[in-house]
UniProtKB/TrEMBL annotation:
Membrane-spanning residues: 58-80, 87-106, 144-162
The protein, known as: DUF1772 domain-containing protein
Organism: Micromonospora arida
Keyword terms of this UniProt record: Membrane, Transmembrane, Transmembrane helix
Amino acid sequence: MNATLAAWSAAVTLVVTGAIAGVYYAFSVAVMPGLNAADAGTAIRAMTSINQRIQNPLFFVTFSGPLVAATVTGVFLLILGKRSAGVLFLVAAGVYLVGAFIPTVVVNVPMNETLDAAGVPTDPAEAVRVWASYSSAWTWWNSLRAGASLISLLLAGLGVYLSGR
């Protein structure tokens, strides 16, 4: 095991964790508020379209990358004797797993699938009710994912700092 491999792995961790944190952050502070400003039927159609198109290989790498890369980096650093840095990367992976990965699989994706399956209600009042319920809960969970991803990024950054000491 050499330090160059650990450094590259750490760099990948920072990039993918920063990227996914940015996605979640953007949804919470811009996309969802923007959709909330539209009429409910339009918001439902737009969100369904986004959810269908976000399922692509690049997003999958970005979504799973923090968990895999932080874990691999943590192990590499432990092997290199950089215990504190390695532990920080493993904690970063754990925070991402519990705060972003699991909520995505258990909460946000099932909510997306339910919204997609239901379609846009023909009754405008029902569309407003469906969207308000979905948007409120989905955004809360998404904000949790954003926060966990940002904490994971911070921990990985501290790990990089400690690995160079």
